[in-house]
C-alpha cells in the first residue's frame, strides 16, 4: 500500500514526579523507548502498579511487534509502533514542559497493529497537556488523564552471562554497570557461564518472572 504523510498536530508534555519519587528532566527523555502497554483512565492505576488481573487492565503491546520511539537531543523525535512511521519536532516550554509540533505519519492500515497505533498516535495528537509519570528511571507513563501509554527505555550495554542457581537455575546477564538482567529469550548458544556479551534489549515490565532476579528483558541483538 502506498505510504502517505499526514500532519497529526501538536501536544504538550508536563514533566513531573512519579511513583518512584524521580524528578524528571529533559535529558532523561533522550534515547530510545519501546511501547509496554496502553489503555484508558480506568486502567491507568493498574498500569502504574503493574497490576494485570482485571478485564479493565491495560492492553499489552504486541510482543512480536518491534516498537520504538526515539527522542533526540536536536529536538526531533520519531518512531514506529506498528506499520507506520511517525516523527516531528519538540521544544522545551517556559512552563517546564515540552511542546511537540510538525508531527507527520505514514498512513497505512494494518489490521493486526491498528488498535495499538491508534492508541499511541491518538493520544499524541489531541492537542492536550500530557503528563509524564516516572515509574523508575527506565519506565514512564504518558497520560492526559483519560488515556495513557507506558514506555520502557531500550537497554544497550556489555556484560557477562552468569548461571544463577535460583528457582531451578537459569542464565542471566550481569551488566558492566552491575545491573542484573533476566532475558526471556537468551539464545542457547549464549548459555555459557562467564561469557562476555554486547547486547540490546527492551524492558518487559508488563510480564512477570518466577526468578525474581533482575530486570526482565527481551533481547533484540546479542553478540
Explain what the structure shows:
The chain has helices spanning 26-29, 41-48, 114-124, and strands at residues 5-15, 31-40, 59-60, 68-71, 76-80, 85-92, 98-106, 129-136, 139-143, 147-164, 170-175, 180-183, 196-203, 215-222. It is mainly β and 223 residues long. The chain folds into two domains: 5-153, Lipocalin, CATH 2.40.128; 155-222, OB fold (Dihydrolipoamide Acetyltransferase, E2P) (Beta Barrel), CATH 2.40.50. Strands 1, 2, 3, 4, 5, 6, 7, 8, 9, 10, 11, 12, 13 and 14 form a 14-stranded mixed beta sheet that branches. The longest helix is centred in the middle third of the chain and has 11 residues, at 114-124. The chain is globular, with a radius of gyration of 18 Å.
Domain unit count: 2
Number of helices: 3
User: What would CATH call the architecture of the largest domain?
Assistant: Beta Barrel
Output mean pLDDT.
Answer: 80
Structural class: mainly beta
CATH class of the largest domain: Mainly Beta
This entry's quaternary arrangement is: single chain
User: What proportion strand?
Assistant: over 45%
Radius of gyration: 18 Å
CATH topology of the largest domain: Lipocalin
Amino acid at each position: 500500500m502506498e505510504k502517505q504523510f499526514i500532519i497529526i498536530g501538536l501536544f504538550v508534555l508536563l514533566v513531573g514526579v512519579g511513583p518512584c519519587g524521580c524528578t524528571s528532566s529533559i535529558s532523561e527523555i533522550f534515547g530510545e523507548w519501546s511501547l509496554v502497554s496502553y489503555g484508558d483512565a480506568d486502567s491507568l492505576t493498574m498500569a502504574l502498579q503493574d497490576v494485570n488481573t482485571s478485564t479493565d487492565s491495560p492492553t499489552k503491546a504486541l510482543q512480536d511487534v518491534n516498537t520504538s520511539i526515539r527522542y533526540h537531543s536536536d529536538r526531533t523525535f520519531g518512531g514506529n509502533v506498528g506499520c507506520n512511521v511517525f516523527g516531528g519536532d519538540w521544544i522545551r516550554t517556559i512552563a517546564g514542559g515540552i511542546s511537540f509540533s510538525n508531527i507527520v505519519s505514514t498512513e497505512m492500515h494494518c489490521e493486526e497493529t491498528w488498535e495499538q497505533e491508534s492508541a499511541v498516535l491518538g493520544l499524541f495528537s489531541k492537542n492536550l497537556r500530557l503528563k509524564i509519570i516516572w515509574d523508575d528511571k527506565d519506565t514512564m507513563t504518558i497520560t492526559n488523564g483519560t488515556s495513557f501509554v507506558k514506555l520502557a527505555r531500550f537497554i544497550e550495554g556489555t556484560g557477562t552471562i552468569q548461571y544463577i542457581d535460583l528457582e531451578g537455575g537459569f542464565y542471566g546477564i550481569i551488566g558492566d554497570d552491575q545491573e542484573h538482567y533476566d532475558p526471556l529469550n537468551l539464545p542457547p548458544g549464549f548459555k555459557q557461564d562467564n561469557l562476555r556479551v554486547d547486547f540490546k534489549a527492551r524492558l518487559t515490565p508488563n510480564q512477570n518472572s518466577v526468578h525474581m532476579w533482575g530486570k526482565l528483558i527481551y533481547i533484540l541483538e546479542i553478540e
